[in-house]
Amino acid sequence: xxxxxxxxxxxxxxxxxxxxDTERIASQYTRITEAFTTVNSLQINYAVKALSNINxxxxxxxLNSGLDTVSIQEVQLGLEAGFDPSKIIYTPNGVSLEEIxxxxxxxxxxxxxxxxxxxxxxxxxxxxxVCIRINPHIMAGGNSKISVGHIDSKFGISIHQVPHxxxxxxxxxxxINGIHMHTGxxxxxxxxxxxxxxxxxxxxxxxxxxxxxxxGSGFKVPYKEGDICTDIEQLGVQLSKRFNEFxxxxxxxVTLMFEPGKFLVSEAGYFLAKVNVVKQTTSTVFAGxxxxxxxLIRPMMYDSYHQIENISNxxxxxxxxxxxxxxxxxxxxxxxxxxxxxxxxxILCFKNAGAYCFSMSSNYNSRYxxxxxxxxxxxDYLIRKRETFKDILNNQEHVEx
Length: 401
Hints:
GO terms for molecular function: diaminopimelate decarboxylase activity. By secondary structure, this protein is an alpha/beta fold. The protein has helices at 3-13, 22-34, 54-62, 72-80, 97-104, 115-124, 162-172, 190-204, 232-250, 262-265, 298-301, 389-393, and strands spanning 17-21, 42-47, 66-69, 88-90, 109-112, 130-135, 157-158, 176-180, 212-214, 255-258, 269-280, 285-289, 308-310, 318-324, 332-340, 347-350, 371-376, 379-384.
């Protein structure tokens, strides 16, 4: 988005502020669908956990996307946004059988990643088809906290336990209609990803009622100029060819599914914050902003990189700053960053703020969560109000002493 528009939005709605550009969302959605045009049946399910504002979900419905959900609350958001239950897949981890049953009652596609839950669900509800999440024991992902397909991961049923899955299916009479995997986020090497798909194909051949294969996502987007990202077009060429071969091998058309989150919304998001103080120390110049890891925790949690620009002074002389927040702990967004000269009151823009940013925000230090704005067809729309003190107290009960 143009920096002038972002500055206008910061002036109109205040800071800190999240802004989402739907044009960028649409271009990324088109990019992934066009990469797999040779596949007869393709379904993209947006990963709600990346950015769950209901207006963003409604926009994905407009794009003909499905939804990937991980909680009953995300399912409810999807239904509230107008999605047909058949366009929602539910892939929880470590939740109760009761929650899974409650979701199943809504007609949503269930995805199970635990043998004991699979057996319990199959005994009670053999008539409800389910998908199986397989752990391929493939290490992928840019950070240990987001690598979920390796052998020590809590996610999925091990490929070595497929005979146990088949035994449960035989004993309960349940129907397996899908096979799923997710290796982790920030995939760089598509060869590693393709190696995992071969494992999934081998598993899928063992289930006769298969309707779809869900290959997860984790596609990496660039965070700075010259950054490496997942070559989605090359992946489309190679995986489409192999997937079509698989369909011929099994003698029927199967749907190819993906569940991208970051890939679709990361680059569409901008986080705007105002500089409260510029502080010179003996070794560093700090730019302290009106935010902290209560609003954007990814740099502290994942060591993630967000490009930071001073949109109030884009042509100023470059200097080096450590951009920090106002939380009473170390909350450094970037150390020794080259940024055009910063003055108090300037607006800094954090790029790639669409995925896992607002959705991971909190009220830590009893601070308010920021507003969210959607930019759609040249117009801005407030899609979440800035919180107030009333929101902080909303669910707290007064006790008289």
